[in-house]
């Protein structure tokens, strides 16, 4: 079949191989790429008997549509296969197709037994019993053996070919099942993916809606418990529950609960239906045919040897029949002579007959029996395969129908899910009122903090510009101061060098003036949340200035409020919105990135605090050394004053004067020392104060670490970070009325210690030693305690860090070891499997090697024997000439037969048999050669005789041809009196009406045209009685009744000569009846033409 709509261009032509799935039949169609699928289906309908509407064509995983050409599927291709499925057989009530295989026993029955009555022979009436036995016993029986063997052989071959065909058809059915299974698997994976998405969406919605229903009254009570800010309260709105109408909500909750239960029941039924579908599909995929087609093909190939054996036996029977026929003919021709004794012929044919009866025929029947068993086995397997394919395709059709039904239900359930979401929308509103209210309050705090941050940044900008202006003013004053010594002031003034930069005023217009007065601490008071962690929210002080730390605190406060507002609705979004996997992955990835960034910033901040701590510890060490030096100098001073007080050699007045002088000098000296020591002591006091303040700042820094993920600006490179962070805390403490903070206690402690030491210097000598010792002890004790605490703190911090690092390291090592252990176990299992497979494969290879070695040894021995036999054959062939070649082969065959009988070796039996057959054929060919030589001699003589006869016949043909040509030339010049044709000669006679009528035996209505008659009249100067001319045109006309109508005639001949014309005549010029046909003939003049009628016409 081919397409008729092929236009220009290269057309892809090829063979389309179509397999029928239900029975395994195959059809090969010749078509091109423009052939429509519908045309292919119609042709397949005539071949397979499957109706067009019941046909389903599959190519790979594509369905061939009837209206599409084959080029849409890149067909036809020689290596591509299309499978045809019968949709009518996929229905549940259909019956499997029946495979009708005609029995070969009916096609090739056994021949009838021979009888002399049906096949008489001349030797049947011979007087010699031996001659009489030759045709009856041997010729007829041997021929019967051959006919019986041929019938057995033909039946066996037909059965074997049928087995091969059934094996191919089962292989086709297996491929068809694979194609159908692959198509079903593709559809099943799609529906399974849709089901997974539906279950995920439904599970998310079911949990969300169940949570809403279970916690609805709790959410409503929570809304009742949360009071509005007094500024927001009114007569009908005092708490958050006043935002909704409780009466409507009660009925809505009941409706939602009922709808939720009903929908849950429907979904459970749908899940059960899908579980059944999944179970049936997986069971179908796991079920396979009990027929192993590879084993069947191997079995069929193994039975091929029986066909070869039968073929060899039939060749031997054919030779025996020829030999018996020749012997009988020889006996018949030499019956009167004694050249061939009948008894010798009977003794020669006796073993042959016995060999046929006891060896050849039983072996043929045994081979037929083996092939018949194979034939029955293949028929049973084919019937079983047809039944399996039929049931399998019915299951596939049922599963596809179920999948189609489930696919329709998906749309219904998705619509139901959307309706459920709409129905639970008001309950979601109840759940979201509290978080939305808290988010609004947090937004207020964020906007206030943002406003303060905005103003603080404006203040920073003003301070920065002011410092820039002061620097510029100083530079200008220095310049004027230096260069005014050389340049007059009026010149400098004219140059404009006395101008100063203007003062920059940064003014921010007020905004957000309508915001409520709220702080972060007010969020939990006005909008508490469940399981609220107050530790996560730090309390920041109000902004009191525009320094860098205050602006940073405002920024942190704004970011914290923004995060709180954003987190209010994040749980609801995650709970109520159905997030797909892509969006969830993006959210998780962003959260992981933010967490990593926060941890990195926290680590940086910890490192910075550690560096600040080290700097402060170094500074404290320097202060301690300075304190020790001062204590030593004070101790030396106290000793010197003690010696002066013990000097009794002076008088009382002198003593008093001396005391007064010493006292004055001591006071001056102490004052001098005070003047000298005031600055270091202040530095020491400041160092201790800043150290204690540092501990407070560390606490604040610790609380700030908890919120590092919400801020990226916590790191402050200023080394005075600890002193600057104390001020906001102190302001907050003063605002709350709490004045006993740790930094103040530390400052008072250090100041009091310093004051005690300074007071002891102004005491008299009697009290100086005692007070000096007490103050020294206090300083030493304070120093030792401080140093001990610092050391303990350092050690604990180092131990804690080391322990944390060790724990983290051990955790990493443990995780690595666990992964390595799992990987090692998997590798061990894999290696064990590989080792087991390798052992099995090695055992298989060893068995195969042993088998091949034994086969090789056997083949080697056989090859050596065959080679020796070939050498003998070669010597026999090469030594003999053409005349003695047949005798040499006959002697070789007899020698091989005798040697086989002596040794009893059946190895080269086939070779000996072949040599024996070759010897016989060579003998036959030798006889045929002699006969052919004789025939050739006779053929040469016959050829010479035929050559002579051929030459004589050639002369006779030439003579007859010349005679025929002369007769033909004479016939051409004769007048035609039969049917008139163009270019013939006609004779016309003038009748009584003056018209010329043709002389014709068949029809008398041939009239000469008036033009021709006029032509003859002009040339002859009179009207002749007859006219003879060559016909150039014949015009056929019909007599019509209307005298006024004109007949337009056309020329009936196919010639296009210039002499052909068409004319118009009267309706009935020749007086004929209406409806009669007549012919008007136009002729050409013939010079000197006389009428010569033929002899038949003349007579």
TrEMBL record:
It comes from the Eukaryota. Residues 88-129, 649-740 are annotated as: Disordered. Keywords: Autophagy, Coiled coil, Protein transport, Transport. One of its GO terms (cellular component) is phagophore assembly site membrane. Residues 709-723 have a biased composition (Polar residues). GO terms for molecular function: molecular adaptor activity; protein kinase binding. Residues 932-1085 form the Autophagy-related protein 11 C-terminal domain. Residues 584-633, 779-841 form a coiled coil. It holds the Pfam family ATG11. Residues 153-485 form the Autophagy protein ATG17-like domain. GO terms for biological process: autophagosome assembly; autophagy of mitochondrion; piecemeal microautophagy of the nucleus; protein transport; reticulophagy; ribophagy. Residues 656-671, 696-705, 728-738 have a biased composition (Basic and acidic residues). PANTHER family: RB1-INDUCIBLE COILED-COIL, RB1-INDUCIBLE COILED-COIL PROTEIN 1. This is Autophagy-related protein 11. It comes from Tagetes erecta.
């Amino acid at each position: 079949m081919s397409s008729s709509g092929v236009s220009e261009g290269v057309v892809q032509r090829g063979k389309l191989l179509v397999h029928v799935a239900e029975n395994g039949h195959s059809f090969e169609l010749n078509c091109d790429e423009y052939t429509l699928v519908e045309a292919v289906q119609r042709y397949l309908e005539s071949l397979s008997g499957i109706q067009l509407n019941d046909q389903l064509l599959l190519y790979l995983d594509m369905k061939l549509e009837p209206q599409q050409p084959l080029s849409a599927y890149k067909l036809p291709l020689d290596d591509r296969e299309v499978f045809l499925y019968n949709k009518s057989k996929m229905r549940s009530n259909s019956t499997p197709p029946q495979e009708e295989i005609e029995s070969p026993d009916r096609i090739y029955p056994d021949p009838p037994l021979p009888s002399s009555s049906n096949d008489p022979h001349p030797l049947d009436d011979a007087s010699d019993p031996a001659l009489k036995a030759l045709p009856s016993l041997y010729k007829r029986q041997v021929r019967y053996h051959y006919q019986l063997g041929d019938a057995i052989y033909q039946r066996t071959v037909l059965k074997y070919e049928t087995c091969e065909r059934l094996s191919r058809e089962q292989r086709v059915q297996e491929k068809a099942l694979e194609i159908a299974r692959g198509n079903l698997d593709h559809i099943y994976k799609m529906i399974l993916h849709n089901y997974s998405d539906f279950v995920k969406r439904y599970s998310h919605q079911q949990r969300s809606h169940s949570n809403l229903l279970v916690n609805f009254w709790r959410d409503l009570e929570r809304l009742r418990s949360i009071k509005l800010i007094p500024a927001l309260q009114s007569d009908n709105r005092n708490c958050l529950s006043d935002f909704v109408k409780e009466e409507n909500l009660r009925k809505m909750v009941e409706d939602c609960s009922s709808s939720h239960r009903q929908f849950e029941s429907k979904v459970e039924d749908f899940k059960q239906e899908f579980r059944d579908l999944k179970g049936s599909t997986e069971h179908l995929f796991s079920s396979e045919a009990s027929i192993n087609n590879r084993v069947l093909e191997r079995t069929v190939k193994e039975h091929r040897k029986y066909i070869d054996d039968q073929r060899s036996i039939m060749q031997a029977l054919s030779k025996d029949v020829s030999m018996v026929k020749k012997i009988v003919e020889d006996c018949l021709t030499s019956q009167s002579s004694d050249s061939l004794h009948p008894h010798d012929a009977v003794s020669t044919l006796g073993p042959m007959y016995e060999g046929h009866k006891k060896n050849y025929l039983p072996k043929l029947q045994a081979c037929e029996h083996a092939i018949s068993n194979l034939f029955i086995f293949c028929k049973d397997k084919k019937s079983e395969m047809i039944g399996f394919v039929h049931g399998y395709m019915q299951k596939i059709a049922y599963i596809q129908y179920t999948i189609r039904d489930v696919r329709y239900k998906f749309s219904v359930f998705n619509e139901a899910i959307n309706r459920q979401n709409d129905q639970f929308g008001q309950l979601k509103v109840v759940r979201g009122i509290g978080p939305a209210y808290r988010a609004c309050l947090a937004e207020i705090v964020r906007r206030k903090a943002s406003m303060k941050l905005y103003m603080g940044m404006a203040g920073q900008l003003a301070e920065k510009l002011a410092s820039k202006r002061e620097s510029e003013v100083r530079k200008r004053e220095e310049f004027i101061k230096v260069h005014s010594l050389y340049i007059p002031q009026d010149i400098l003034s004219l140059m404009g060098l006395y101008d100063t930069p203007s003062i920059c005023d940064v003014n921010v217009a007020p905004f957000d003036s309508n915001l409520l007065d709220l702080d972060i601490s007010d969020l939990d008071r006005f909008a508490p949340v469940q399981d609220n962690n107050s530790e996560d929210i730090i309390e920041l002080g109000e902004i009191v200035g525009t320094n860098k730390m205050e602006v940073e605190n405002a920024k942190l406060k704004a970011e914290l409020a923004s995060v709180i507002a954003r987190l209010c609705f994040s749980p609801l979004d995650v709970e109520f919105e159905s997030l797909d996997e892509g969006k969830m992955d993006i959210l998780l990835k962003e959260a992981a990135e933010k967490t990593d960034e926060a941890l990195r910033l926290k680590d940086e901040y910890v490192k910075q605090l550690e560096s600040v701590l080290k700097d402060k510890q170094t500074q404290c060490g320097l202060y301690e050394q300075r304190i020790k030096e001062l204590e030593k100098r004070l101790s030396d001073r106290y000793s010197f004053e003690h010696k002066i007080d013990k000097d009794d050699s002076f008088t009382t007045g002198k003593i008093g004067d001396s005391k007064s002088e010493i006292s004055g000098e001591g006071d001056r000296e102490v004052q001098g020392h005070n003047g000298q020591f005031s600055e270091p002591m202040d530095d020491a006091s400041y160092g201790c104060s800043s150290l204690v303040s540092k501990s407070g700042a560390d606490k604040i820094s610790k609380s700030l670490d908890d919120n590092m993920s919400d801020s990226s600006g916590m790191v402050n490179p200023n080394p005075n970070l600890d002193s600057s962070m104390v001020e906001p805390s102190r302001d907050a403490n003063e605002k709350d009325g709490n004045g006993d903070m740790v930094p103040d206690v530390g400052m008072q402690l250090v100041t009091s210690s310093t004051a005690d030491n300074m007071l002891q210097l102004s005491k008299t000598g009697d009290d100086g030693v005692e007070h000096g010792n007490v103050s020294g002890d206090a300083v030493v004790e304070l120093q030792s305690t401080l140093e001990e605490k610092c050391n303990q703190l350092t050690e604990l911090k180092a131990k804690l860090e080391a322990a944390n690092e060790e724990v983290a390291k051990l955790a990493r090592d443990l995780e690595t070891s666990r992964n390595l252990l799992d990987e090692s176990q998997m590798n061990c299992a894999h290696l064990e499997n590989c080792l087991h497979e390798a052992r099995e494969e090695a055992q298989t290879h060893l068995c195969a090697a042993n088998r091949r070695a034994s086969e090789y040894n056997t083949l080697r021995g056989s090859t050596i024997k065959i080679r020796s036999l070939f050498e003998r054959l070669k010597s026999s062939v090469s030594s003999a000439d053409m005349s003695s070649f047949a005798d040499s082969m006959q002697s070789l065959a007899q020698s091989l037969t005798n040697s086989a009988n002596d040794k009893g070796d059946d190895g080269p039996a086939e070779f000996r048999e072949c040599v024996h057959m070759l010897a016989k054929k060579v003998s036959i060919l030798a006889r045929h050669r002699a006969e052919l030589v004789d025939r050739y001699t006779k053929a040469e003589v016959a050829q010479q005789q035929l050559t002579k006869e051929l030459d004589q016949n050639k002369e006779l043909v030439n003579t007859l041809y010349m005679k025929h040509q002369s007769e033909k030339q004479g016939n051409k010049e004769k007048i035609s009196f039969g049917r008139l044709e163009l270019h013939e000669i006609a004779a016309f006679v003038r009748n009584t009406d003056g018209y010329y009528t043709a002389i014709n035996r068949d029809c008398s209505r041939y009239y000469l045209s008036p033009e021709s008659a006029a032509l003859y009249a002009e040339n002859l100067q009179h009207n002749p009685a007859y006219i003879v001319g060559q016909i150039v045109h014949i015009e056929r006309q019909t007599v019509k009744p209307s005298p006024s109508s004109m007949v337009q005639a056309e020329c009936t001949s196919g010639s296009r000569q210039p002499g052909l014309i068409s004319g118009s005549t009267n309706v009935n010029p020749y007086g004929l009846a209406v409806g009669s046909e007549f012919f008007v003939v136009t002729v050409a003049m013939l010079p000197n033409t006389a009428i010569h009628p033929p002899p038949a016409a003349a007579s």
